[in-house]
Amino acid sequence: MKKIFVAGHRGMVGSAICRQLQKQADVEIITRARDELDLCDQPAVHEFMNSEKPDEVILAAAKVGGIHANNTYPAEFIYQNLQIQNNVIHAAHINDVQKLLFLGSSCIYPRAAEQPMKEETLLTGVLEPTNEPYAIAKIAGIKMCESYNRQYGRDYRSVMPTNLFGPGDNYHPENSHVVPALIRRFHEAKENNLDEVVVWGSGRPRREFLYVDDMAKASLFVHYLDTETLLDATKPMLSHINVGTGTDVTIRELAETVKDVIGFTGALVFDRTKPDGPPRKLLDTAFLKRLGFSNTISLKMGLEITYENFTSLTGEC
């Protein structure tokens, strides 16, 4: 029986990874809630690792949010994410954890990166200003994994997911990502018989969206992939792998799909005074597909599952 510590198990990604791990008979999942273990507290993290002695670590814990949150709290985004990563990765190494998986974000790539974005475009240009602090923290996490691999022979890998959505998402009216924000906005508009729903930006930017359970499956696929196979396919000092669908839609198309799933019949209005962010963000997932993994849940199917989960949480039909 192998012990796996999933950091961030209550978040959308962490909970999805736990759902996948629960299907494995030989796994004991170790978790700690934030009030039990503050991952920003270095001594506490080291004491936990020394006491529990996990065989593997999956680092899904992070401070996350949409454009508004990233713009409003840049200091918290860079500080807390760096603290979490530094503490967990180093404590894992000190306690001889050989296998670790770090979850990053597609925002690590330059704003003007050629589309779709390949793994090797990392650090080749200027980042998107609206989420630069968060992106820098995630880049540091990747390089930390690579450095421990290089110096100590660890097997610390990183996956860079595209925009995720699904059960367990954050539906905060201001600080959430675009999919949960739209779900909440359209749902409340439908419940209150409103005439319109306002969406931030022009609706023109293109984004890629992946259902979180597909992301969890891909994460574990990469985590357990044969080391020789992975090394044969990657370049030196390149520990991260893109995870996405390989297709994108405009924000307008996304909003229209959410509108259809929820059954809102009013108008769709775009507030062009709000920031758009990068014009396009699409990951090149050719590497992951060559390794043998592809997603299975479509955008609309995932939105339907997610909305059903949202209404069960709110107690509404």
Largest sheet composition: 6 strands, parallel
Order of helices and strands: EHEHEHHEHEEHEEEHHEEHEEHH
Roughly how many Å is the radius of gyration?
A: 19 Å
Q: Strand portion, in percent?
A: 15-25%
Q: What is the molecular shape?
A: globular
Q: Strands of the largest sheet, in order across it?
A: 2-1-3-4-5-10
> Which residues form runs of ≥5 with pLDDT under 50?
none
Structural class: alpha/beta
Roughly how many Å apart are the termini?
A: 42 Å
Q: How many individual β-strands? A: 13
Q: Work out the helix count.
A: 11
Helix content: 40-55%
Mean pLDDT: 93
Please, could you describe this protein's structure?
With 317 residues, the protein is an alpha/beta fold. 43% of the residues lie in helices and 16% in strands. It has eleven helices and 13 strands. The protein has a six-stranded parallel beta sheet, with helices on both faces. Strands 11-8-13 form a three-stranded mixed beta sheet. A two-stranded parallel ribbon has the order 6-9. Strand 1 (2-7), helix 1 (12-21) and strand 2 (27-30) form a beta-alpha-beta unit. Helix 1 packs across helix 7 (212-223), helix 2 runs parallel beside helix 4 (74-94) and helix 4 runs parallel beside helix 5. It is globular and about 60 Å long. It starts with a strand and ends with a helix.
